[in-house]
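INFO  loader      accepted 1 record
INFO  loader      residues=430
INFO  predictor   begin
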Amino acid sequence: MTLKRIQLGLIHMAVAMTLVPINSTLNRVMIRELALSATLVAVLASLPYFFSPLQMAIGAFSDRHPLFGLRRTPYILFGILLCVAGVIISPWSAFRLAQGGAAGVLAGLLPFLAWGMGYNIASVSYLALASELSSQDGRGKTIAVMWFMMIVSIILTAIGLSRMVDPYTPAALISAFRTIGLVALFLGGIALVGLEPHAASSGLPAQNPSLQQMSGAILGNPQARRFFVYLLLLLAAIFGQDVLLEPFAAEAFNWTVTQTTRLTSLWGGFVLLAILLAGALEQRLSRRFVAQTGNLGALIGFLLILAGGGLRSPLVFYLGVIFLGAGTGLSTVANLALMFDLTLPSQTGLFIGAWGFSNALSRLTGAVLGGAVRDLVTSISGNALTGYLVVFAIEAAMLLAAVFLLGRIDVNAFRKAAARSILERAALTD
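INFO  predictor   done
INFO  writer      dumping tokens
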């Protein structure tokens, strides 16, 4: 199982590597260097998450219909190919978008649409595969290995990008993004070799569930419904800052592209340490306790980032990024283990798709709200820094709400309600 965990981690690394340039460095360049509206950039960065309902459909479809005898691998490979294509064309698209006109807008849409389709297809598929390959007791280890490797890839990608674009030129940006994309494709391709066993008959009906049936599996279970909202609030807060953290640092401290790109390395380093800690604690403490500790750490991080920006103190700001990274690491491992616990073996793809939908919807909500609120407050106050501060304050409030909601989630109650639902559906079909 150790080898399979490493292979799953390599897939996660490949997808994460494509996320860094398109969702961090490119956002900074579009807002700061190309002087594009933060609202426009946030909308473009959020386009991938409009495809998030695909995750439930793809997960449910692949539960029932293996391709070439493999239930997840073909979808993972196709998703990675789309992610890589989106990254490689994104610099050209950004420069064309800055020129304006209908052709520019169309060009700006292309990479985010390609990456978004790829992200949604690949992520639900490899998370479902991770759940299927891991025993219940081993899921925490699988998650820790996957996210450890992912964060390593984010750190190395951020460091590599910061060096490849120093000094910044359009040609350097194009070359750097192409290199990252090709390396991601290579890692993802070799990871898939021999990973998934050939699928046996699932024992499930061949027809695909309708949208009403898929949503009913989630909405009809109070605990699943609560967990969906919890993930939405938590991830909108934690990951909604992705689009704005680097531009915020540039505005508050007048840092260069290289300096703000290195923030990802700092954040990622402490996520990495926290993931190692969470993996060690997973067998000793409850998942809810570890998740709550991480949530509170991230909340402290937001408050320190707010204080650092308001006081123009790089030291306080850096401390906030450290707390945010550490809290994110603890929260990630524990919440993903909870996510796998809130999944039925007979409907792995469907439930993983639902949690992926919540994840994507939260990123969409966080990014669009963040960009729009930043621009609105900046316009009213005449101060860009004030706009960023208001956004981070809202995200801190969302995180606080998630902390309270987690206390009301019960895995055992979820399983009992799911079992009743399955029995009721079986009685109706007899």
